[in-house]
């Protein structure tokens, strides 16, 4: 090769090298520099539909002004082997953000989760509505999952639904999550709380109460009072009534049995409606849990107060007056009903009719 040819070759090498490194530096700059170039931007939500590939994802990001170059992002994704790893879901990014970080988040599935709090005492229908309001699941989809016999069997939940076994707590779920995963999460939390309570229960308790009966009774207690200090007393009253073959006469059980028709006003004819949950008409516990109890109510069933109470009536201030005899109870009923007219029944034997029913049960 003559001198002129060697010089041309060297020149082309130098130009190629300069071009290559310039391009490489440019690509690295585009990948690792936060974009868009602003000190601090807003948070932005991006939805990546299921089945969206790397190129489709890049177009979504570019359309929302999150990446500066579609080809660079796609090329880097292929080099990193992330072309088949993009996870569907809702993502939240704080702008500016480096494209390389975007790719990590998308490949790892670091999707946006939403906080939802399920209060103690919510029933299955209220939980479904809370999840739907948060955009986490569709109401009917959740109810269907909570009644799936196969799922209930896997979760060791007796009965026809997960009612009572969905622990009330604060959860974080992605929007559009499979409802079965929500049921699994909440039921898993229930068993996590219940297992140690059951383990520490005495042999006498375990011989007289099954986990299912504990949950049913705890759900009724949960709806009868919001005061944790009263729950062992109410548990004692109910357990004493069950031992004496007396009806529980609990208004919340009646309401659950007519949930779809209940308008907030419990009427006398509702107390006579023969549903499997109406403890004014049936002896023993209702057909299943009427709500999802918290730890205090579960604990109360396993540790009832050592008292002879059989009756209690609302004091109209969130607490209850307890009695051991029907005569004493009727006096309290008269006093508290007289101080507040009209009275909407809120507790077992909370009106004179309840006293008469309890007397018959004896």
Q: Radius of gyration from the CA trace?
A: 32 Å
Shape: elongated
Structural class: mainly alpha
Instruction: Give the termini separation.
Output: 118 Å
Biggest sheet descriptor? 2 strands, antiparallel
Which stretches are low in confidence, meaning pLDDT under 50 for 5 or more residues running? 342-362
Helices and strands, in N-to-C order? HEHHEHEHHHEHHHHHHHEEHH
Describe this structure in words.
The protein is mainly α and 362 residues long. The chain has 3 domains: 30-108, Dna Ligase, domain 1, CATH 3.30.1490; 113-195, 2-Layer Sandwich (Dna Ligase, domain 1), CATH 3.30.1490; 201-361, no CATH class. It has 16 helices and 6 strands. It has helices at 3-32, 54-63, 70-79, 99-108, 124-133, 139-146, 149-154, 179-200, 203-208, 211-224, 231-243, 251-257, 268-271, 295-302, 326-338, 352-361, and strands spanning 43-48, 89-94, 113-117, 170-174, 311-314, 320-323. The strands form 3 sheets. It has a two-stranded antiparallel ribbon with strand order 1-2. Strands 3-4 form a two-stranded antiparallel ribbon. Helix 11 packs across helix 14. It is elongated, with a radius of gyration of 32 Å. Mean pLDDT is 86; it is low at 342-362.
How is the topology of this model organized?
Blueprint: H1 3-32, E1 43-48, H2 54-63, H3 70-79, E2 89-94, H4 99-108, E3 113-117, H5 124-133, H6 139-146, H7 149-154, E4 170-174, H8 179-200, H9 203-208, H10 211-224, H11 231-243, H12 251-257, H13 268-271, H14 295-302, E5 311-314, E6 320-323, H15 326-338, H16 352-361
Antiparallel strand pairs: 1-2, 3-4, 5-6
